[in-house]
Amino acid sequence: MKRRVVVTGIGVVSPLACDVGSFWQHLVAGKSGIRRLSSLNLDDFKVHIGGEVVDFDATGFCDAKELKRLDRFTLFALVAGGQAVRQAGLDFASVDVNRCGVILGSGIGGLHEIEQQMERLFGKGPDRVSPFTVPKMMLNAAGGNVAIQYGLRGPNHAVATACASATNAMGDALRMIQEDLADVVITGGTEAAITRMGLAAFQNMKALSARNDAPHLASRPFDRDRDGFVLSEGAGLLVFESLQHALRRGARPLAEVIGYGASCDAGHITQPDVAGTGAAAAMSAAIRDGGLEPHQIDYINAHGTSTPLGDAAETCAIKNVFGSHATRVAISSTKSMLGHSLGASGGLEAAVSVLSIQHGMIHPTINLEHPDPACDLDYTPREPRELAVKRVMSNSFGFGGHNASIIFGAVD
After folding, report:
1. Dihedral sign, Cα of residue 3, residue 6, residue 9, residue 12
2. Helices (H), 161-307
3. One-character DSSP codes across 56-83
4. Catalytic residues
5. Nearest Cα residue to 272 out of 393, 400, 373
6. Which helix (H) or strand (E) holds 13?
7. Which of 330, 309, 304 is nearest to 374 (CA)?
8. Which of 38, 46, 49, 104 has its CA 20 to 30 A from that of 292?
């Protein structure tokens, strides 16, 4: 029999806020975190906007001498992970650290470090490349450093499935605990890809919105006038724990992790299946895994990136899975306010899913002013909604055709 798994802590680093309370307040208020990018010289770029983390301080979560030895995406993970551990009330000195692990997702990893060291290599020669380059840029650096921070010797690996990374990582964490391979797993995703290379690469794919004159209006999922996603950064980490372990140490579960599903489109490396077949397979798998029926889902936190193809494909997938319930289930897109933080997005949206259950509230999809006829479901446009949320599905779909869905529920 599979063990029950609960969430006992959440932590966030985002363009809106770097603490959970402010993050939730801004989301419910419909505040956009998209702005003109201040950290880069973009005079020669077509896109000047993004979801940049500007109010960020890692000093309380990391040894000061280590700050320069860690890439930005790892620092994000340490801060969000630290928040989650504190909320969970975990004292790792009093639990078996051999049964405590870290499984994190990141689509790109240490892009800041890669870019800086490439500049050194070509500008100053190979002898000037930092000896810390590899441990800073590698995808598993975030999870490895979170484990080092707390002395966790249990399962630890990195997941890289583009924008599905965090949700696939959480699915792995769920299975580890269900199958009694771990008691506690810090999981979610982190990403810091707002660099000149990152922005240029997505810009030249024509994947990004170029609404430079109105950044706060640029991310508009399911709207007729959407013209691409907005590149963002941040981290969303959660503490997953067996229910028995949490109750034994007196922790308060925030939500239960009910089901998980994953699939692959196996079609195009960047474009989604326009019928949403793979996405539908992941959603259906999560529902079956949780022993649920589609009508038992109260809210879908959509992948909702604001791309012309992606939003329409997700709408098709929801219709295919939910049938008549598709027109009744509440849906919203967190990316309308945060932009798209790639491999971190599923972690941030998992945090939102848990908060929606706790607060009985759904944040709006902002900028949904002219609904697309191809996107004709209830996306909670512009205003938040009070709703007794018992079960939430969170969707993440990524380049490579990766699809992942995870379901959170109120703890009975």
Report:
1. positive
2. 165-178, 196-204, 243-248, 277-289
3. ---TTTS-GGGGGGS-HHHHHHHHHHHH
4. 163, 303, 340
5. 400
6. strand 5-13
7. 309
8. 104
